[in-house]
Specification:
binds flavin-adenine dinucleotide; 24% strand; seven-stranded mixed sheet; alpha/beta; eight-stranded mixed sheet; FAD/NAD(P)-binding domain
Length: 424
């Protein structure tokens, strides 16, 4: 068995970025990836009936340096996205300024918070009164929907930082989709000699101070000097009965604890292609996002692009609770939600429907969730995970990023960059 210089486990944004930078600096790199494709939680679809749609990451949330730098290097364009915010309530659809009543009071109280607690605890402590019930509900829904987090675990300090740094909602979409960026990284890696091994599910990582031995589900062994473990937090958290879970030998006790201490959310995304953009009228011509209290609560159009695609989003504990529903049941929930939002019979919507796809990342064996959120313990856990084990094992992934762009592609790229710098 030939010993490899560096093996990267996982060809998502973090693993590809690390492989790209290390191969560029002359290192010999092999990537072992469980799926038959690269990109991980980035998967731009181009289906004959569904058309172009992002089944995973879709937006650049803000002016994010690394993502924009890489796009510019790759010559890939991007443009502002996102139209007006609308709210659906009791069969009424109206434009919303998305102001949560009492928000300023909430931010004021958060700014004085001295000790970190979960956001649920914070709300109970400072806004437990009945008069704040609506505000509590709105905040919990936001934490669930946007951060896909469990409010009983999500750190109030981290949310305070996120909400203070809100950059006026600057948001972009990539021409051709995020998949173009992954294809660029793959192409660069290949031209630097990176060896891609797809459909290789790593199951065992046996390490000594001399070398690392990896064994895949199909019982192939690989030897390496150093290994970058660029797996999703969900896979690292999973019990050994899961198809993609990895056993370390010797075990990493401190790391196992840190992995469990970090937060990782749940998400189900629904893509519906209709015959027409029936939601578009003179009044709603700029409709971008729709928030509702429906089973699939959040929806968006492709505005300003003209498109017949509607995307539904169910995040956090409600997604966790529905993750075992099959695709048809989730589609039914989606159609029922839209029928209530647009005040239309379900039959009419079904007749309008041309193609659909339910993407349940929470049960996808190679993801097992959405993306990371900070718990009260995340900061310390992350510092531990960022430290290499015996200069042999290095962890990378969006969950290891510390900063305002948590749970994003930027976070994954930044982590890939950090690990490549550690090794170089
Ligand atoms: C529905 C959804 C929407 C999102 N929307 C956005 C967005 O709009 N904007 C944004 O910036 N971010 C978004 N994100 C987050 C973003 O996609 C992730 O933060 C980022 O892509 C994670 O990259 P990663 O390399 O850390 O992990 P991943 O992309 O998950 O890569 C990990 C890789 O490891 C592989 N793997 C798993 N198990 C094994 C194993 N045992 N052996 C070998 N390989 C294995 C996986 O197949 C995968 O390819 C979204 C995520 C989801 C799920």
């Amino acid at each position: 068995m030939e010993k490899q210089e560096i093996i990267v486990v996982g060809a998502g944004a973090a693993g590809l970025m690390a492989a790209y930078l290390l191969s560029k600096s002359g290192k010999r790199v092999t990537i072992l990836e469980a799926r038959e494709r690269i990109g991980g939680r980035i998967y731009s679809l181009n289906d004959p009936t569904l058309g172009y749609a992002e089944s995973g990451a879709e937006f650049i949330h803000g002016d994010l340096t690394l993502t924009k730098q890489l796009l510019s290097e790759a010559g890939i364009g991007f443009s502002p996205s996102g139209g007006e915010m609308w709210e659906a309530n009791g069969g009424q659809l109206r434009q919303s300024n998305w102001n949560i009543e009492g928000w300023d009071e909430l931010m004021e109280a958060l700014s004085h918070l001295q000790k970190d607690v979960s956001i649920a605890e914070f709300l109970q402590e400072y806004f437990g009164d009945e008069k704040y019930a609506q505000m509590r509900d709105a905040v919990i829904r936001f934490v669930s929907g946007y951060d896909t987090a469990d409010p009983a675990r999500a750190s109030a300090f981290a949310l305070r930082l996120e909400w203070q740094q809100d950059d006026e909602g600057a948001q972009y979409q990539i021409k051709g989709g995020y998949g173009e960026l992954m294809a660029f990284l793959e192409k660069q890696c290949k031209s630097n000699g990176v060896n891609f091994q797809l459909e290789k599910v790593v199951k065992h990582i046996d390490w000594t101070s001399e070398q690392v031995r990896l064994t895949t589900a199909d019982k192939i062994g690989y030897l390496a000097v150093k290994v970058i473990i660029a797996l999703p937090l969900g896979v690292l958290k999973a019990g050994i009965d899961q198809p993609a879970s990895v056993v370390f030998e010797p075990g990493l006790m401190d790391h196992s604890l840190a992995i469990q201490q970090m937060g990782y959310g749940a998400i189900i995304k629904v893509l519906l292609r209709f015959k027409s953009d029936f939601w578009n009228s003179a009044k709603t011509a700029k409709i971008g996002f729709i928030l509702s209290g429906e089973a699939i609560p959040t929806w968006w159009t492709q505005y300003p692009a003209v498109s017949n695609l509607l995307t539904g989003w169910l995040g956090g504990l409600p997604a966790e609770a529905k993750k075992h529903l099959d695709e048809n049941q989730l589609l039914e929930l989606a159609i029922g939600s839209l029928a209530n939002i647009f005040n239309k019979p379900e039959t009419e919507l079904c007749e309008e429907l041309v193609a659909w796809k339910v993407v349940n990342w929470t049960t996808d064996p190679y993801t097992l969730g959405s993306y990371a959120y900070d718990t009260v313990e995340s900061h310390r856990a992350r510092i531990l995970m960022q430290r290499p084990v015996a200069q042999k094992l290095y962890f990378a992934g969006e969950y290891l990023y510390e900063g305002p762009a948590m749970g994003t592609v930027e976070a994954a790229l930044a982590s890939g960059l950090a690990v490549a710098q550690q090794i170089s």
